[in-house]
Amino acid sequence: MDEVGRGTTPEDGVAVGYACLEHLHQKIRCRALFATHFHTLVDMTADFERLVRWCTTVSEQPDGSWVYVHKLRRGVNRDSHALKVARLAGEFISSCVGPIVHANR
């Protein structure tokens, strides 16, 4: 499950995410992959004895560039990389759209 609660208020997203995790863990007791950006869920589910947390990380370079490290590691990544991704998306859009805008002038 990915991005459960996305597109809602943070409070609603956490509530939906918690309800799903609790049901999967306590009632169904199944194996599942559950991805979220709601860091609060980590603390709220600390007593879920069968829940194992895995995350990815980012390798940051001295020049400010970065790349996702595509390896899972045990633990929680509490750093948010949203601004880095948004900046990268903006650069991508500018590089794609810029030439089209200039060509149509």
Summarize it:
The chain has three helices and two strands, in the order ααββα.
How does this structure look, described?
- This protein has 105 residues and is of the alpha+beta class.
- It has 2 domains: 1-52, no CATH class; 55-105, no CATH class.
- The chain has 3 helices and 2 strands.
- The protein has helices spanning 10-28, 40-44, 82-103, and strands at 54-60, 66-74.
- A two-stranded antiparallel ribbon has the order 1-2.
- The longest helix is centred in the C-terminal third of the chain and has 22 residues, at 82-103.
- The mean pLDDT is 84.
Name the descriptors.
alpha+beta, 105 residues, 3 helices, two-stranded antiparallel ribbon, 2 strands
Strands in their spatial order, largest beta sheet: 1-2
Largest sheet: 2 strands, antiparallel
Write down the domain tally: 2
- Class by SSE composition: alpha+beta
Count every beta strand, where a strand is a DSSP E run of 2 or more residues: 2
Order of helices and strands: HHEEH
Shape: elongated
What helical percentage do the residues reach? Answer: 40-55%
Low-confidence stretches: none
C-alpha Rg (nearest Å): 18 Å
SS strand fraction: 15-25%
Mean pLDDT: 84
Multimerization status: single chain
Distance between the termini: 45 Å
SS summary, helix count:
3
Task: Record the SSE blueprint.
Layout lengths: L9 H19 L11 H5 L9 E7 L5 E9 L7 H22 L2
Antiparallel strand pairs: 1-2
